[in-house]
Specification:
It is a single chain. The chain is α/β, with parallel strands linked by helices. It has five domains: 90 residues, Double Clp-N motif (Orthogonal Bundle), CATH 1.10.1780; 159 residues, P-loop containing nucleotide triphosphate hydrolases (Rossmann fold, 3-Layer(aba) Sandwich), CATH 3.40.50; 77 residues; 212 residues, P-loop containing nucleotide triphosphate hydrolases (Rossmann fold), CATH 3.40.50.300; 83 residues, Orthogonal Bundle (Helicase, Ruva Protein, domain 3). 47% of the residues lie in helices and 13% in strands. The chain has 29 helices and 18 strands. The strands form five sheets. A six-stranded mixed β-sheet has the order 3-5-6-7-4-8, sandwiched between helices. A five-stranded parallel β-sheet has the order 10-11-14-9-15, sandwiched between helices. The chain has a three-stranded mixed β-sheet with strand order 16-17-18. α2 runs antiparallel to α4. It is elongated, with a radius of gyration of 33 Å.
């Protein structure tokens, strides 16, 4: 039979894989069956049935006394004697269920259909179990659709439900669709509906897999047809489990079916309950890996889900701690927060001077706004503000068109998060009526887009939780849209119609508006501004217009209102130089040797800037005067000849 230590290690690994806290003879039978399939074939069904009754836990698996007692036989290598001893030990340690609840699970389904062991130790879910029983215990039971986030403990509800029903002799039979081969998923459901005792609860987990909801064109008709008898059979109790994200797709597949269920939502665990669960799991995980896990490491594991994370807490925190302990064990040391696979917000810092310098390299003529933004972000990103649950910043950029409001938001995304992809932009002019709130949090079932959450704001923030959110032209949005954002500004969270919640705590929100821009144009100041005193007076007027126009509850939740002033002639010239330098850098990479003369820069500044659009046309001007003409010429050295409002290029 090979090395005894290796055999026991394999049995311990099998116990851990199944989530069992003890290594029992049945685990040995499973492991030995892989090495001696003929001798152990007759024991396998009893072993699987025994393991199905063990409580699922995250305890470190320990060798039970009856396993230790088998060691002399295991050392002897007498496989027949071992098989007989295992058969006896399994039958002795696994009594049959009483009260007429026993039934045979077909061997072909023994890996995916199990009687759920009662577990009274699951905390924080009594209200959910009671809500399920409100429907299952009716004179005519109503089937239950249990909806929750991935990793929120949906499957643990089966054990808690079994614990609540154990005293009444009612078994809970779990169909694990994630472990059932596709061709058997339908038969698993129909067989259990046929074989399970009349008072049993059928717990169909991960129903989205059986229905094919994760794949375009998934066929769900046969499975749905098999579910319908459960609604008609007298006294049949069934709980169907689905992740929140898949509910809209199920509604789109068969709205009538969904309406026949009593829907129970699995809420997030309270913070104190979640912490107690993770504390207990940390002790088990640490014991298994032989490492210590301190409070700081646990706190790091409890950080919100981030880009790339699968699922939510408590499963997410447990997975992070297991990885951290694995890393620590490789180096024979205690686990630390650095071992946790998560970006820790508490470690983020912003140097206001460095940030301001980085922004000034991209934005010209708005130094006051840049300094204010950098100072505010230095406080919030380091979580030193008095309301850490709110977004890292809520800014309102006001002022004329083309003076750098949107450009500063993009520069902030680059400086804070490293890429243009960290800017999430919403054109608020598209949210001009009440029903357009659906673009943020989804539309009700039956409406266009209800089953495609990819464009919803909540989906975008959940996939990019550290970003700059740009709300362009906020004044054009419907007031109902503003109400939606009030919740975001105040609580740092937004829940969509699927029940999925997006976390905005590490999001910087920038709103732009043209309200008050006419103040500058009325005084002839759109274009070039030469009088700082006049600009200051105009800024004060714009702020007053904003106060009269926008609702007080919105303004009160904005961290900083920044008025962008018209650009000075020097600023316009510098913008022309920067945009031209960008174009010349691209040309040099392709073999062109081009220098920008002062008369060319003056021409670009003059044509690329206007009283109406500010510097918004500067890039197009550079493209028209520099890139387009040179694109028609072979690589080489060229110089510009400026004549009036045009430029031609000649070989240098």
């Amino acid at each position: 039979m090979g090395d005894l230590t290796g055999l026991l290690d394999d049995a311990r690994a099998e116990a851990k894989r199944r989530g069992h806290g003890s290594v029992v003879p049945a685990h040995l039978a499973i492991v030995l069956h892989e090495r001696h399939p003929q001798e152990l074939a007759s024991i396998l069904p009893a072993a699987e049935a025994a393991l199905a009754r063990l409580p699922v836990t995250y305890d470190s698996p320990d060798l039970r006394a009856d396993v230790v007692a088998l060691e002399p036989l295991l050392k002897s290598g007498d496989i027949d004697a071992v098989a007989a001893a295992l058969s006896h030990a399994i039958s002795e340690s696994t009594p049959e269920p009483s009260d007429g609840t026993a039934f045979a699970i077909p061997e072909v389904l023994s890996d995916s259909v199990r009687i759920v062991p009662p577990d009274d130790s699951i905390v924080g879910r009594s209200a959910t179990v009671d809500a399920i029983l409100d429907h299952l215990d009716r004179k005519q039971p109503t089937p239950v659709l249990l909806v929750g986030e991935e990793g929120s403990g949906r499957t643990a509800i089966a054990s808690a439900l079994a614990g609540s029903l154990a005293a009444r002799g009612i078994p809970v039979v779990r169909i694990d669709n994630a472990r059932t081969p596709g061709e058997r998923q339908l038969s698993a459901l129909t067989e259990m509906l046929r074989l399970a005792p009349g008072n049993a609860v059928i717990f169909a987990d991960d129903i989205e897999i059986a229905l094919g909801l994760g794949f375009a064109g998934g066929v769900a008709g046969a499975y749905i047809a098999a579910l319908r008898p459960a609604f008609e059979q007298e006294g049949q109790r069934i709980v169907v489990v689905i992740p929140t994200d898949y509910l809209p797709r199920l509604q789109g597949t068969d709205r009538e079916l969904v309406d026949e269920f009593a829907r129970v939502k699995l809420p997030p665990l309270p913070d104190d309950v979640l912490r107690s669960i993770i504390d207990a799991r940390a002790a088990d995980i640490g014991a298994f890996h032989g490492v210590a896990i301190d409070a700081a490491t646990i706190e790091a594991a409890l950080a919100p889900a981030q880009d790339g994370d699968l699922g939510t807490h408590p499963a997410l925190a447990i997975r992070r701690l297991d990885i951290a302990a694995t890393r620590a064990a490789r180096h024979s040391r205690a686990a630390t927060p650095e071992d946790v696979p998560v970006i820790r917000s508490t470690e983020r810092r912003v140097d206001p001077k460095a940030l301001a310098l980085a922004l000034r390299e991209q934005i010209v003529g708005q130094d006051a706004a840049i300094d204010t933004v950098a100072g505010r972000l230095a406080v919030t990103v380091a979580q030193l503000d008095l309301n850490p649950h709110r977004p890292d910043g809520v800014f309102l950029f006001a002022g004329p068109t083309g003076v750098g409001k949107t450009a500063l938001a993009l520069a902030m995304a680059r400086a804070l998060f490293g890429s243009d992809g960290s800017l999430v932009r919403i054109d608020m002019s598209e949210l001009h009526s009440e029903h357009t709130v659906a673009k943020l949090v989804g539309s009700p079932p039956g409406y266009v887009g209800h089953d495609d959450p990819s464009g919803w704001l909540t989906t975008q923030i959940r996939s990019t939780p550290r970003c700059v959110l740009l709300l362009d032209e906020i004044e054009k949005a419907d007031p109902q849209v503003w109400n939606t954002f009030l919740q975001v500004f105040d609580a740092g969270r937004l829940t969509d119609l699927r029940g999925a919640t997006a976390d905005f705590r590490e999001v910087v929100i920038v709103m732009t508006t043209n309200l008050g821009a006419e103040t500058f144009s009325d005084k002839g100041a759109i274009g070039f501004v030469d009088n700082p005193g006049s600009a200051a007076a105009d800024t004060s007027t714009v702020r007053e217009i904003l106060r009269r126009t926008m609702r007080p509850e919105l303004l009160n939740r904005i961290d900083e209102i920044l008025v962008f002033t018209p650009l000075s002639p020097e600023a316009v010239t510098e913008i022309a130089r920067m945009r031209t330098a960008d174009a010349l850098a691209v040309l040099r990479e392709r073999g062109y040797q081009v220098e920008a003369s002062q008369d060319l820069l003056d021409l670009i500044a003059r044509i690329g800037f206007s009283r109406e659009y500010g510097a918004r046309e500067m890039l197009r001007t550079v493209e028209r005067l520099v890139l387009q003409p040179l694109a028609a010429l072979p690589a080489g050295a060229y110089r510009a000849i400026v004549t009036g409002d045009s430029a031609t290029w000649q070989a240098a």
